[in-house]
Every structure is written in C-alpha cells, then in structure tokens.
C-alpha cells in the first residue's frame, strides 16, 4: 500500500513532464490510467530499447510509465469520448499536456470534466500556460529555457550558449505539477472542492533563477556568467581539465574549502582571492587550471580522498551508474523479469519499492 493507494489518475499526457508527474504518483500506489492515441506515446518509439518482462520497451518510456495502465482511445470519436467520460466519473486527478484549446475542442476542458466529476483535480501542463501572448507558441524544453533567460547563462567561456544537458523546464514543470496536484488533493480533503492547475513550463522554471539573476530581478542588468559566483566566475565553483583530457570540478565556495585546498597546495597566499567578488578571481582560476592539468582525473580522486574539499570527478552516465553510491542507495533497480529502472527519488523509510510493470500498448483498453 503506497501513500497514494486509492487515488485514481486519468493521464492524457505524452513525452516528459506529464508522464514524470504521473509515474511519481504511480510509484506511490496511485492507479494511473494512461490514455494514448492510436499512434501511442511518442516515447514508446524512442531508442534505445531493453527487455522488460516479456516485451521490449523504450528505456525512456519504461522509466516514465511503469506501473500504469494503457488505454487506447480515439477522442475524436463518440465511442472514445464516452469511454473517457466513464474513466473520469470516478477519477481523482485528470492530467493533460496538449496545447491550449485542444481539450476544449475535444469537449474535455476543465468545466466539462468538472461537470462529470465535480471534485476533480484537473492539471494542464503546457509550455507557456493557458493564457497570454505565448500561450499558443509551440515549444519544447530548450525553447522555454531560451525565452526564460536560462540559456543565456548556459554558455561556454566565449559566451556562446550551448544545448543544455538537462531538460530543466520539463523537470521543473513535472515537479511543480506534482506539488500542485498533491496540494489540491490535501485541500480537497478539507473542503471537498477540486481545483484547476494551469502549470506552465516557463512559470515553473523561472523561480529557479533567484540565486543567479538577482540583478535582473531587482530591475538592473542581466548577469554575465564569468562575473557570477555560480556560473563560472569563481575558482571554487569551476570545471577543470586534467592531464588525461578528462575533467573535475570544485563545487563549494565556502572559504573553509579554499583554505583546505590551497593550504595543501602550499598557496595560502591565494586564499584572499577565493573571497574576492566573482569575476575578480582570474589569478586563482589560472593557478587551479595549471595545477589540475598536472595529474589524471583518477590521480586527483585519490589525492582528494583525505581532503575536506567539495571536489568531484566529472563522470559520464555509464561511470555514474556504476558508482558504488548508486548501488548503496538502491537507485538503479532491475525489475522482476528484467529491465532496469532509475528508482524514484521519493521513497519512504520502512517501505520497500519495486518498479511496476511497463504497460504494453493498449493492453488495458477493454
């Protein structure tokens, strides 16, 4: 029995933010009915594939849709609409991720769904929200990051933005939507009333710039990466290349770390620079670049083993997943019958977790 056992979710979302929201609910025991179009969730067709149980599935799809039921409905047909209304009749949560206006055209906007189930918690996830000048503008994660200002500081030393490694707008939306849905369910327990959640990827991402875009938030100029302590202007929050062409990072700017490292390197004279404003630490950064270039990544890992410094090697995903820490935390799990999953970040003490089965396309339609 998970924390959300007894909660029924009707999920029309595809790709990433919505399915991440609902898989986090399924992992905690919610009954999630994944309503797919005739072509299926596009994530089903994205390589690479692995064997989960008795079928091959996309690793992406499996990790975001385990434990759900798959129902295939044509929502442009009367039969499909009637079936969806039946599913909604006893649902607690309704999730959709279409562009604004689509659900109204299909006859399943919030007012229509609320007419079927008055206390429904209805969540719409979109790039820019249901209203406003950008509401109908097509966008995936990177375009949202670009328009929110984040891509401008996802740049290299020459100031050129690069494609981000993390889908920050998607992940912010998935987590924000989950929080909103759970808040609404808690509120419903007290008032008996449902709620409508208009979750925009743009709105979800924007608050996460508070620690870097303070000058712009206050009405001033935009931050420039090399002059920001968390974006490349500080020696102790920086990426360094090692002698074997790999990389390490210093990831903590507290002065105690500077004292510990620079003391061990016999360069206490540079400690004041570690406290200088971002953008004024070029001499310190140059010294650290020269120093890290003298040994391999693994030699530095060994050297730092007894040092109290926020240091890490830069690992690729293969190396990261093979790290002992992953196994110790149980974060990479093989399901019964095969197929690997990343374990949910939300787990509760004393409760065992196993990944639910990955639904075959349409297997629960009847």
From TrEMBL:
Pfam families: CoA_transf_3. GO terms for molecular function: transferase activity. The keyword rRNA-binding does not apply. This is CoA transferase. Keywords: Transferase. The keyword Endoplasmic reticulum does not apply. Transmembrane segments: none annotated.
């Amino acid at each position: 029995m998970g924390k959300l056992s007894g909660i029924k979710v009707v999920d029309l979302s595809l790709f990433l933010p919505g399915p991440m929201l609902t898989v986090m609910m399924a992992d905690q025991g919610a009954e999630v009915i994944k309503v797919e179009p005739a072509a299926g969730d596009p994530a089903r067709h994205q390589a690479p594939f692995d064997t989960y149980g008795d079928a091959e599935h996309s690793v992406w799809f499996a990790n975001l849709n385990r434990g759900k039921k798959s129902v295939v409905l044509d929502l442009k047909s009367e039969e499909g609409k009637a079936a969806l209304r039946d599913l909604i009749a006893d649902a607690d949560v309704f999730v959709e991720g279409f562009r604004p206006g689509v659900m109204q055209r299909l006859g399943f906007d919030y007012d229509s769904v609320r007419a079927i189930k008055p206390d429904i918690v209805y969540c719409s996830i979109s790039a820019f929200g249901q209203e406003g000048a950008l509401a109908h503008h097509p966008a995936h994660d990177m375009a949202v990051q670009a328009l929110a200002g984040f891509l401008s500081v996802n740049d290299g030393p020459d100031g050129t933005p690069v494609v981000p490694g993390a889908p920050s707008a998607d992940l912010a939306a998935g987590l924000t939507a989950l929080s909103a849905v759970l808040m609404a369910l808690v509120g419903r327990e007290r008032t008996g009333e449902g709620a409508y959640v208009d979750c925009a990827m743009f709105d979800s991402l924007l608050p996460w710039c508070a620690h870097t875009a303070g000058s712009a938030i206050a009405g001033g100029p935009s931050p420039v990466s090399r002059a920001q302590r968390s974006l490349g202007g500080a020696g102790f929050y920086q990426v360094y290349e090692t002698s074997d062409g790999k990389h390490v990072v210093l990831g903590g700017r507290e002065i105690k770390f500077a004292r510990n490292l620079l003391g061990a390197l016999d360069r206490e004279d540079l400690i004041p620079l570690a406290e200088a404003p971002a953008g004024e630490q070029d001499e310190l950064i140059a010294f650290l670049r020269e120093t890290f270039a003298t040994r391999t990544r693994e030699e530095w890992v060994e050297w730092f083993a007894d040092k109290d410094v926020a240091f890490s090697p830069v690992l690729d995903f293969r190396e990261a997943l093979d790290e002992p820490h992953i196994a110790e935390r149980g974060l990479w799990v093989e399901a019964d019958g095969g197929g690997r999953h990343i374990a949910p970040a939300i787990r509760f003490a004393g409760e065992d977790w196993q990944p639910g089965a990955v639904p075959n396309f349409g297997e629960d339609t009847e």
